[in-house]
Amino acid sequence: MWRLEAMAKENRSPKDGLPGRSTSPHPATIQPKERPRQAAPTRTPHPATVLQRQNPPSLAAKMPHAATVAQPKARHAARGIPPEALVALRKACGVIQAASNGPFDPYRPMSFFRDETTSNIRGRNDSGVVFGGTVQRPARSFAGEEAAQFLRHLSTYFFYYANHFLAKGDAEVEAMYTNDRILISANNPKTMEQLYQQLVKEPTLLDAIRTIPSTSSDRRGARVVDRFQDEMMSPDLTEDVQFLAQSLAMVPVRESVEQITIRNAVPKTDVLVEPHYREKLILVSGLGVHAEQKLLLVLTKSRLPKTTPVLIRGKKRPCFGCWLCLYFVADVMGYNLNYNTRPGKSWTNSIDGLKAIIDRALDIDVPKQLMRAWGDKVIRQYEANKIRSHVSTVYGTGAEDPGFDSESDDDLDSYS
Q: What are residue 135's DSSP bridge partners?
């Protein structure tokens, strides 16, 4: 009441507020006056920026920083890929960024060459397809390649031994020597299993090797069988693989020979590093793939260091599909692999065998850039007609097996 009475005396209403209190609006409710905007200062671009805008670099010319280049090399080295292999592959294929565009397809080379084989089949597929014409390989010197020559002789002997005693009619036998072990395999998945059952009937390997298997009308095959038997009893040996084979021949078969089976592309055990398999002849059976591909699966599934020398040779030169697998394992996966680099004819089922090798590369994280670059390179080689089908000099005559690898001139001299 006292407040209203005071207001009445001063002739003010309640809305005017108390005496002495300002009626000005609160500062927060006052809208600030709009200030005039100042012009932005003129900025002079850096000279390097001016040059870059005047001459924009192309995408292909951009190079990665040195630190980003060194890091992948270190990572690949940790995975067992030799740096020199990376350098050689990059030189052969060009800059990795220049590889084919589009999503990465690890099976592209397999699909490409399968389609090329299928489209060039004339008549029955079992006769194979010639790529780029045939190149006849005459007899030549194997000086300096005595170990490879011996594996060819060993493969040829067991090829005829298996076909004679087992009546298998197998198409090929291949041998691999590495880490004090000799492995042999055949195309047929059961040939080596049945060969083992035949060999254990003999006291020693030498007793089996003294047997002369039938080579039918194949005169070259007969010469190689004779040569192998002489080597197994010769005192004049020069190669470690020869010494190993000769020493195994003197031991009871059950102590010198082992047999393993590959199932689902996985060997039963790591025979290349397990001590039990050291200084043994190992027969590899299973899977309906070519002999070389079985041996490569044993190799790539093993803990064997990639720097360990690996030698593969057979009675015949590798067909195109097996050559692709050998090429991939050596160039992309980085194994120290010695193999015949001159392919024969092409078969679709052999090319399909590359899938298991590529799957293994993906499992161990082989760089996709390497796989893509290799696929691009080998396809370019084919399109440039640099891949040819190599055959023996009797190809087309019916005189002997045309799939034979190149004959040795000293075989001709000794067994004319």
A: 390
pTM, two decimal places: 0.73
Residue 329 corresponds to which amino acid? V
Residue 171's CB: how many other CB atoms inside 10 A? 20
94-108, 126-140, 247-261, 306-320: segment of lowest average pLDDT: 94-108
Residues facing residue 181 across a β-bridge = 178
Strand arrangement, sheet containing 337-338: 266-267, 257-263, 281-285, 181-186, 173-178, 310-314, 337-338
The whole-number average pLDDT for the span 367-376 is 95
**Contact assessment for residue 228 and residue 242, using Cβ atoms and an 8 Å cutoff:** no
Q: Is the pLDDT of residue 86 over 90?
A: no
List CB contacts of 34: < 8 A, sequence separation 6 or more: none
Q: What is the longest distance spanned by two Cα atoms in the chain?
A: 148
Q: pLDDT, tens digit, for every residue of 267-323?
A: 878 999 999 999 999 999 999 999 999 999 999 999 999 999 999 999 999 999 999
Per-residue b or e along 249-262, where b marks 16 or more CB atoms closer than 10 Å to that residue's CB: bebebeebbbbbeb
How far apart (Å, rounded) are the C-alpha atoms in residues 403 and 416? 21
| Alpha-carbon distances of 154 from 185, 211, 309, 323, 397, rounded to whole Å | 12, 14, 19, 20, 26
